[in-house]
C-alpha cells in the first residue's frame, strides 16, 4: 500500500504543469474565427487535449505533420506564461502538409488519442488549464468537427471537448518544446506520455510515421 501511495504521489507531482487551480474568469465564445494563411504549402491546426507534452508527441509522429508546437490558447489573457496562463488551456499548433494529411484525419487523431468523456483534464492532469478544446478556422473545419462529434455521440460517447473559433495561439517557453523527445526518462513521460501515445498508435497505426514507435 505504501508503495502504491508513493507511486501515485510521484505521478501527481511530476504531472505536466501540476496545475489544478480552477479558472473562474468567464469564457468568451468568439463568433468569427481567425484563419491562419497557408505558408510554403503548410497549414496549421490547433488542439487542446490535456498536457501539451503528450499532444506534441502524438502529432509529431503522424504522417504529414512536420511539427507540433506547445503553447496556450482558448482564453482571453494577453501574453500568457506557463506559471500564469489565465483562462487559456495548454494547446498545440500542428503544422501539416494538406497534401499528405487532411484536417479530418487530424480531428480523428485528436479523439483517438484522448479520453473523449473526461471533463476539464486528461488523465492525471486536472483543471481548466487541461480542458479539451478543438478549434476551427472556417466553416468547413467546423462542419468536419461537428460531423465527428455527431458520429461519436451516436456511438454512445458524451463528448467533453469544447468547439471554439480559433483566435490566437501563444507559443510556450522554449523548455516545453519537444519535451518528450528531449526528456525520454522523465517519470511523467515514461508513465503518462508514452503509454498515451502507444494507446493511440494501437488505434490508428496507419497514420503513424515509420519511425514513430516507443
Automatic annotation (TrEMBL):
Residues 45-188 form the Peptide methionine sulphoxide reductase MsrA domain. The active site is at 51. It catalyses: L-methionyl-[protein] + [thioredoxin]-disulfide + H2O = L-methionyl-(S)-S-oxide-[protein] + [thioredoxin]-dithiol; [thioredoxin]-disulfide + L-methionine + H2O = L-methionine (S)-S-oxide + [thioredoxin]-dithiol. It holds the Pfam family PMSR. It comes from the Bacteria. The keyword Protein biosynthesis does not apply. PANTHER family: PEPTIDE METHIONINE SULFOXIDE REDUCTASE, PEPTIDE METHIONINE SULFOXIDE REDUCTASE MSRA 2. HAMAP family: MsrA (MF_01401). This is Peptide methionine sulfoxide reductase MsrA.
Amino acid at each position: 500500500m505504501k508503495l502504491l501511495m508513493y507511486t501515485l504521489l510521484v505521478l501527481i507531482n511530476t504531472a505536466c504543469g501540476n496545475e489544478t487551480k480552477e479558472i473562474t474568469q468567464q469564457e468568451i465564445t468568439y463568433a468569427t474565427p481567425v484563419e491562419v494563411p497557408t505558408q510554403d504549402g503548410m497549414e496549421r491546426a490547433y488542439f487542446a487535449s490535456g498536457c501539451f507534452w503528450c499532444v506534441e508527441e502524438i502529432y509529431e509522429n503522424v504522417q504529414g505533420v512536420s511539427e507540433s508546437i506547445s503553447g496556450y490558447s482558448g482564453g482571453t489573457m494577453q501574453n500568457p506564461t506557463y506559471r500564469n496562463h489565465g483562462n487559456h488551456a495548454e494547446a498545440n499548433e500542428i503544422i501539416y502538409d494538406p497534401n499528405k494529411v487532411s484536417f479530418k484525419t487530424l480531428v480523428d487523431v485528436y479523439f483517438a488519442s484522448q479520453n473523449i468523456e473526461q471533463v476539464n483534464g486528461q488523465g492525471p492532469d486536472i483543471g481548466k488549464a487541461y480542458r479539451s478544446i478543438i478549434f476551427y478556422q472556417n466553416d468547413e473545419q467546423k462542419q468536419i468537427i461537428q460531423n465527428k462529434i455527431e458520429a461519436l455521440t451516436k456511438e454512445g460517447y458524451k463528448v467533453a471537448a469544447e468547439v471554439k473559433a480559433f483566435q490566437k495561439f501563444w507559443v510556450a517557453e522554449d523548455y516545453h518544446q519537444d519535451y518528450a523527445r528531449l526528456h525520454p526518462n522523465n517519470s511523467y513521460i515514461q508513465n503518462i506520455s508514452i503509454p498515451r501515445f502507444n494507446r493511440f498508435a494501437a488505434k490508428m497505426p496507419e497514420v503513424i510515421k515509420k519511425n514513430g514507435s516507443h
